[in-house]
Design goal:
Length: 410
């Protein structure tokens, strides 16, 4: 291990030991609020960067309709956030993906530059721990959708150099080298039966770099190809359990077991259509009407020669979601419970999808509500140690293992 990593790890141990001496052991082990506050809480997926770029919104500003900002993160003891760098393939042509990707990366890095007293860019597990010890908010980045690399491993390496530490191999669109779950039944789309040979090169290069491979959004065959190809643990940055909610975006029990064998981690998504079967069916029943509204919006912006801003399309989705109402909070907790029961407590985490979903489940309005997750799971019998793993420890373990296996591990 790098000398700095040894020092930081030793500092963390001393800090935790000191904290244990000043708190009531009984309360810290049994009080959900104390447990939540004592954990390093990490969320692997929020789509907030679009707000930085398109709305010129600042992370320290009021939420203004969003689900995540600096204040809500502090209230919810959210310590580290992987900001999703997502390029809508329907709004940005294939040869413009990289430019949009760089704009979103720049927008995220600018937040760190503007607020060095509050935010710090983190590119390793040690960085997260050190930033937490300093009382700052850890900013990390993950690319959502392999189309952002424009079939170029050089771009993948450039994104890594800029601080990107995971990539979701596909978004809802099949790209030139990996199939997505989002269009796997569309006969008009050219599919590859999983990963192409170049797709396997992408996974190998991510392993070499120390960039986590993210299997959320991919097709089932792509998932199994990744498991057979990767030499490091993988993550599902925002996916839930298909046994409970039959969305193709969710993971089957067989996949959860494969993630356990791979030593990876599944981060539970908060989108009602992925965590509540009744809500999913109601959402799907609106699909035709919702698509018509979105097409009308696209035509309006196309006439102006502009891409549709996410805020505009999200407004339509929020209006349709409001017609259904909120999904039950317990549906979300059921998914955490299912992943744990199948894959084990060492292979579960949080991937909220804040600012990328029209509405979270009941009881969750922003990052300030994350302590409710800890309280609900502890009410079901999970321990303080279990929660420390789920809230951030499991992701830190995978992050370390992926980076330790890179060919330039310091």
């Amino acid at each position: 291990m790098h000398k700095r990593g040894i020092f930081v790890s030793a500092l963390l141990i001393l800090t935790l030991h000191s904290a244990a001496q000043t708190k009531s052991p009984t309360k810290s082990m049994t009080d959900p609020q104390a447990v939540h506050q004592s954990a390093i809480v990490i969320d692997t997926h929020a789509d907030t960067p679009q707000r930085f770029v398109d709305e010129h919104w600042d992370f320290t500003d009021p939420l203004n309709g969003g689900m995540l900002n600096y204040s809500s993160a502090k209230q919810g003891n959210l310590d580290a956030q992987f900001f999703s760098i997502w390029v809508d393939p329907n709004q940005y042509p294939a040869n413009a993906s990289a430019h949009r990707t760089l704009s979103l990366i720049d927008g995220t890095l600018e937040q760190v530059r503007k607020h060095p007293d509050k935010l710090a860019l983190c590119v390793s597990a040690d960085d997260i721990i050190a930033t937490h010890a300093q009382g700052k908010f850890a900013v990390l980045m993950g690319i959502e959708g392999g189309h952002s690399i424009e079939n170029d491993l050089g771009l993948l390496r450039d994104y890594y150099r800029l601080g990107v530490r995971y990539m979701t191999l596909t978004w809802s669109n099949t790209n030139n080298w990996a199939d997505s779950s989002g269009d796997i039944d569309d006969e008009k789309v050219h599919h590859h039966n999983g990963l192409t040979p170049f797709g396997k090169q992408v996974v190998a290069e991510m392993n070499r770099l120390g960039m986590m491979v993210d299997v959320s959004h991919v097709s089932d065959k792509t998932f199994w190809d990744v498991i057979a190809t990767t030499r490091t643990p993988v993550i599902a940055s925002h996916s839930s359990a298909r046994a409970l909610t039959h969305a193709a975006r969710n993971m089957t029990d067989e996949m959860l077991l494969a993630m356990k064998k791979n030593n990876g981690v599944v981060m539970v998504n908060f989108f009602p259509a992925f965590i509540d079967e009744n809500w999913r069916r109601a959402w799907n029943a609106q699909e035709s009407e919702r698509k018509q509204a979105q097409k009308a919006l696209e035509a309006e912006y196309r006439a102006k020669g502009l891409p549709v801003p996410y805020t505009a399309s999200d407004k339509i989705d929020r209006e349709f979601a409001a017609k259904i109402g909120r999904a039950p909070f317990n549906s979300l907790i059921d998914h955490f419970d299912r992943v744990i029961k199948v894959a084990g407590i060492d292979h579960v985490g949080i991937g909220t999808d804040f600012d990328g979903i029209p509405v979270p489940p009941a009881g969750i309005d922003s990052a300030a509500d994350l302590p409710k997750i800890t309280a609900a799971l502890m009410a079901r019998g999970y321990t303080a140690d279990d929660m420390h793993k789920l809230l951030g420890g499991n992701l830190l373990r995978v992050f370390r293992e992926v980076q330790a296996a890179s060919d330039h591990n310091p």
